[in-house]
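LOG
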Amino acid sequence: KLDCCKITATGNRQKNLLICGGNGSGKTTFMLGLWGEFLRRRIETGSGFIPLYVSLSDYPEDADWRQGDTQDSFILRQICMNCYGAANLAGCSPDLLSGLAAEFAKENDAPQYVLLADGLDEVKPEVRGLLHYELRTFSEKSNLRVIVTSRCQDLALGAFDLIETDGLSDEALLRFLSEHGFSRGECGKAEANRTLMRLIRYPMYLAMLCRLHDSGQRVTDITRTGRLLHRYFLMGKERERIDRISGRRSDGENEKMLL
């Protein structure tokens, strides 16, 4: 089970982690929650990690920014953009890059920084090896701890402890549905639909289901991922259409249209 408090605890300060889970299992949401928790602790106590979030899916398809240097670091340049306002990867100053590299290499009793690198599997296979190299290099920095998310276990090496995300339990799912407006009868129908229960163990699909239910749709009969995504897509397009039309009408005209 993923637990922000356990991962941010001082007892885990020396560990580099690979969080592995399927599509829609909440990895990015969890990483953003970790970033917030690390930042909150730093602000409130003045101690703990300084969090640095990097989306690996932003890795560019072309290599022009490297200017022929295969040892150049996408992650370091992305931190420059996120934290110091560099306009693009190529716009990071050499002094700033070298200063950051030196900061992460400092010798301390415990690391001061945590790198939250999200979405390794979303990078194209032909450049994934370069990121593997970067992440392993960063994992060896004495002033930095690294946490990576991926759908596959491609970094489960000596430098990274593997954490696999578990789906929500039936009890937790039914409690969540009840708290979000599902009647007792609807919860019973959902529980009897084992295909649906397996699908909504992933938080992304659970959130989609609840939004469809909020819009008045019957959702306990859904048995395929494609069907859930199709209904969710249509709901979004319908809302866009209504918003477009309502923007050109008075409140009274909008009420008549919806009725």
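LOG (cont.) second protein
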Amino acid sequence: EPLFRDMDRIRSRTLNEVKFELIRVECDDIKRSLIQKANAIATALMELLASQLTEETMRVAEQYQQINNRIRVQPGTPEELMELKQIVDGVPERLNSLWETFEHITEGNDLLIKYRFITDNSDFESYWSTMKWPKEINDELANWENNYSTFRSEFQNKLSVCVESLSLNIVKLQDRVDKLADKSESSPPHDTYNEIRSIEDSIKDYQKEIQLYNSHEALFNKPQTQWSHIKDIKAAFEPHRDLWEVTYMSEKLDEYLTG
């Protein structure tokens, strides 16, 4: 702006000629030269400004796009739902920060318009499409609470079903371990060994499920279900496992030695 003010001053306040005693100095060529150089400098500055505004608009648009894409994700687990909630809770602050940057871009574009600097049509379209992002994102945020409540309810219902199913499976596991006491030396070691392996795998799987479901209950601020008897089942199972592993390996060794 100071540069354009100086050009106006040269045009309006500088004399076309200056007369001294016996001398007349014409200033038209000097004025034109100064104005041309000032115009060249102003054009270069506005081109630089337009380029910077284009890049800044693209960066802001990309960040708006990233926010929009992220808040539209459909969570597949309770962990993803809670992670998404944290992201959504931080969106208003990010929008405010981006809008401050966009206002700076608007001030720059207003300056270009004021001095009749014509930018590419693509820059114009990019600017206006970027301006629409906050409304689109805020519209999506307006639906978020309902969506969050729906997802939370679905995950809690699914968790209740899983907890009940696990409890039943642990009862069945207890029955399987109890039946190991009925095995005798005449029982086929191979079959019993396979059952031992299956029970051991089930214990490991159920322990993982217990950790998972308890963590989900904690996410939803629900009392954690206690499956302390899984430890008792494991303690009762281990002597049977050790016995039948030795029996099975002894049988395999005898088969090897006898050919």
